[in-house]
Amino acid sequence: MGELRVIAFLLAFSPFITAVTSSQCSTNGIPLVRDISTLPQDNYGRPGLSHITVAGSLMHGLKEVEIWLQTFAPGTHTPIHRHSCEEVFVVLKGSGTLYLSPNSHAKTPGKPEEFQIFSNSTFYVPVNDVHQLWNTNENEDLQVLVVISRPPVKIFMYNDWLMPHTAATLKFPYFWDEHCYQTDVKDEL
Ligand SMILES: *[C@@H]1O[C@H](CO)[C@@H](O)[C@H](O)[C@H]1NC(C)=O
């Protein structure tokens, strides 16, 4: 009887225990189905940004892809940056501008091409192309689902479009990976 009670207790509470231990920085697997509205969300020091790592490399142990859900308040934007992975965006809400420089073989990115993005649009950023996403709609948030390959992402940031590629600064781990990266290091000591 006592044993059955213990088993019943474990069965009843194991989903909650799993949810708590795997909510952040667990590479031991994550629950198969998760409610996105309960996932950790933060601006990671960037005012006007909301970032959720839906499924991540450093955060959850994924090896091939990483998925983010990001919301940019009006007027906010990503840094000018590049990374050697593929990146696909799906615009869920709002509109804005993608600035993209295909000049990864020139000395500097140079003046970027501008693309208008809109709700239910999708776009792809080729490997190593310097780009910046900007919510240029002053009335509405811009919400995007982002899929990147080859995580964890190693981002090279530019102060402006005339900065030489060789002067771009590596930001690794990236803002939302910092916490999990440090945890990993501690675990190894
Ligand atoms: C986006 O496009 C797809 C394909 O046409 C359509 O089924 C869907 O309803 C659209 N979603 C929105 C939010 O407009």
UniProtKB/TrEMBL annotation:
Signal peptide residues on this chain, from the entry's feature table: 1-19
Keyword Zinc: yes
Compartment(s): Endoplasmic reticulum lumen
Keywords tagged on the record: Auxin signaling pathway, Disulfide bond, Endoplasmic reticulum, Glycoprotein, Metal-binding, Receptor, Signal, Zinc
Entry-listed glycosylation sites: 120
Gene3D superfamilies found in the cross-reference section: Jelly Rolls (2.60.120.10)
GO MF annotations, alphabetized: auxin binding; metal ion binding
Residues bound to Zn(2+): 81, 83, 87, 131
Transmembrane domains' residue ranges: none
GO annotation, biological process: auxin-activated signaling pathway; cytokinesis by cell plate formation; positive regulation of cell division; positive regulation of cell size; positive regulation of DNA endoreduplication; unidimensional cell growth
GO cellular component: endoplasmic reticulum lumen
Main location: endoplasmic reticulum
Cystine crosslinks: 25-180
UniProt xrefs under PANTHER family: AUXIN-BINDING PROTEIN 1 (PTHR37236:SF1)
Function: This is probably a receptor for the plant hormone auxin.
Protein name: Putative auxin binding protein 1 beta1
